[in-house]
Amino acid sequence: MSRDQSRNRHDVAIVGLGPTGATLANLLGKCGVRVLGLDRYPEPYPLPRAVHFDDEVMRIFQTAGIADEISRIVRINVGMRFVDTDEKLLLDWPRPQEVGPQGWYASYRFHQPELEEILRRSLLDRHTVELQTGQEFIGLEEHGDHVRIDYVDRNTGDKQAAEAAYVVGCDGANSLVRQSMETAQTDLGFKERWLVVDLLLNKPKPELGNHTIQYCNPERPMTYARGPENRRRWEIALLENESSEQACEPAVVWEHLAPWISRSEAEIERAAVYTFHSILADQWRVGRQLIAGDAAHRTPPFMGQGMCAGIRDAANLAWKLARVVAGGGPESLLDTYTSERRPHAQAYIATAVRLGRLINASGTRQALDAAFRRDDGTVRMESISPPLGDGLGSSADPLRGRLFPQPVLGDGERLDDRCGYSPALIADCSFLSDLPDDIRRQLSDICIIDAAGSEAAMQWLSREGRKAALVRPDRYVFATASNQAELRAVISAFDREAGE
To answer: Could you tell me which residue, 359 or 342, shows the higher pLDDT?
Structure first.
């Protein structure tokens, strides 16, 4: 592509096509947005990194049209157990083994290169998405109505440029887009080096078990996780006097793993030292520049929510960008991205930090008891589901910003398959039948779902004491209503804040 041909063609440029960037590109492409996707690697990165995602993320993949394909490469996670130095159970975190309220299983294990391959392949079918891989992003320059993006071909050294209305940096912890935005970062106080070892078993070893195990040893905390097929992972805390280089040497790795597995039983696919951080960028949007994924936040891995947070960023941002570039949404809509997503991500990071400190604590049993003892006296952990931060909708509605479940409708179709990536009104059938013509005209661009066809939807409305819920394209509740006057106000507020 020539320099001139690339100009004035794109609504959104995405820097980095890892899981966050590729998901964002897929959702924008689904909306017909003209996307330029840049990545420094010609193919997906071939080694494992993230290994877990949850039901909300699978639901987002469903919206992108790739969940069924992804479901063939994952393993349903049975849960996590915390054990002491004698491997006695301290805390159990079981994950349900049946499909849950989001329409999917609660927890999945996966191999990231396989996921990225599916995401990239799906982009090839998006006619409004242009991929430029093997291209190194080198900088940008913001102008009044666009951003100029400069990049260089890593093979030829040829420099190129493109223009887009907005640029989203999904370019990782050392994000150049974030640096361009000059936003400060807030450190939540967790910083530890851990050795991450990915193994390929030579033969089955069932005694390793299917649960993720947190070995709460204050001298040497460790984590074991089962992946799909023959993949297994250990994460091992490093001491201050241990060098990262020596920690990755095979002899040292096998010495750490000796209590569980021998050199003859597996091959080391990857051994790398990571510094686990707890960091949030203060601003996720400055002008026409935005960031998502690790560029915006980093978390310790103990909740398995690092990649999940980035995928949620993509789902929150894509429909907002699509509305703004189409001209129907006010630019202020993009300001709600930071205000909604940052506190939500911070809630997960804070929980991961708390878990990390418990794993390291010398009084782990007492600490776990204090942190997770329930009213019935048991010590168990459950998944958190925080609401979005302040943004769209009224904070006076206690259901605003809560994730709406995905019920199966009367004809067997799931809610998201019926509505696609668009807003939906889920309402009591008698309430819908009495709606006057003026409200129906207001709802012309909104998918209307009669809750009578779904026991789960009716139960949700009944439990919350509401007649209707307006759900955003990312499946979070915008607002609820109990009468026609409230519904009129809800629809008008959505049109005003999010555009038609």
So the answer is: 342
> Measured at the alpha carbon of residue 293, what is the angle toward residues 290 and 297, in degrees to the nearest 5?
95
Cross-strand bridge partners of residue 39:
133
pLDDT tens readout for residues 224-240:
999 999 999 999 999 99
What are the pLDDT digits (tens) for 145-166?
999 999 999 999 999 999 999 9
- 324 phi and psi, to 5 degrees? -70, -45
Question: In this structure, are strands 75-76 and 185-201 parallel, antiparallel, or unpaired?
Answer: unpaired
Q: Find out whether 2 and 115 touch, Cβ atoms under 8 Å.
A: no
Mention every residue, 6+ apart, whose C-beta is less than 8 A from residue 463: none
Q: Which amino acid is at 38?
A: L
Report the C-alpha gap between 395 and 385 in whole angstroms: 17
Contact (CB, 8 A) for 483 and 449:
no
Does position 300 have pLDDT exceeding 90, yes or no? yes
From residue 115, give the alpha-carbon distance in Å to each of 56, 110, 365. Answer: 16, 8, 37
- Statement: residue 323 has pLDDT above 70: yes
* 52 alpha-carbon distance from chain centroid: 10
- Residue 137: per-residue pLDDT: 97
CB neighbourhood size of 218 (10 A): 14
C-alpha closest to that of 273 among 234, 305, 310: 234
Angle formed by the axes of helices 306-326 and 19-30, nearest 10°? 30
Give the C-alpha separation, 427 to 421, whole Å.
19
Residue with tokens 């100029």: 148
Q: How far is CA 217 from CA 87, 100, 258, 442, in A?
A: 10, 33, 16, 59
Where are the strands (E) in 229-265, listed by range? 231-237
The pTM of the full predicted model, rounded to 2 decimals, is 0.94
Q: Indicate if the pLDDT at residue 424 is higher than 80.
A: yes
Phi first, then psi: give them for residue 151, nearest 5 degrees.
Answer: -150, 165
130 near 5, Cβ under 8 Å?
no
C-beta separation of 449 from 461 below 8 A: no
Q: How far apart are CA 165 and CA 151, in angstroms?
A: 17
- Across the beta sheet with 212-215, the strand order is 89-94, 79-83, 212-215, 222-226, 231-237, 185-201, 266-281, 297-298
